[in-house]
Amino acid sequence: MNLTRVERVYPDTSYWVAMRCRADDNHAVWQQFHPQIETARLLWSPWTHFELFNALRQMTLGSDAALTEAEANRLIASLEKEVQLGYFDPCVIDWRDELRECRELSAQFGCRMLMRSGDVVQVAVARLSGADLFVTCNEDQHALASAAGVESIYVH
User: Fold this and answer.
1) Whether 9 contacts 41, CB under 8 Å
2) Which percentage of the chain shows pLDDT scores above 70?
3) CA distances from 58 to 2, 52, 69, 79, 86 (A)
4) 32 partner at 20 to 30 Å CA-CA among 11, 18, 24, 131?
5) Which tens digit of pLDDT belongs to each residue from 70-83?
6) Radius of gyration in angstroms for the set of CA atoms belonging to the chain, rounded to a whole number
7) Rounded to whole angstroms, what are the CA distances from 60 to 19, 67, 71, 141?
């Protein structure tokens, strides 16, 4: 795929985490890949808002936590500000359409491949948004997106 023509990118949660969290295992590969789509607009959905912020909070748990609570709160506050400033394009789709798309994806692929429910939501939103590209650091999610006909890149 010619990435210079990509205008609208829907990143999944693993991509956003790799972008914002230096402690993430995929941060270095994100740094190598992202300049290729730097001029594209990133799409931000209500599902991204919830799942990303929850993932950052979850990264504070356990004895081997990747983030402190203060670090997670700083990252969330920074992202909130960027959303408010319009750094990302809002991608709001009627939740009924999202769930209908999720049910269709499940019916089509649920017996053939691994599909975490949250991953299905991300692929459904990417498909409904008309994004030129879906980017993820999650191999199973990439496989689902590709199977669903969504142009996808697995960043790893």
Assistant:
1) yes
2) 100
3) 35, 10, 9, 16, 26
4) 131
5) 999 999 999 999 99
6) 15
7) 17, 5, 9, 24
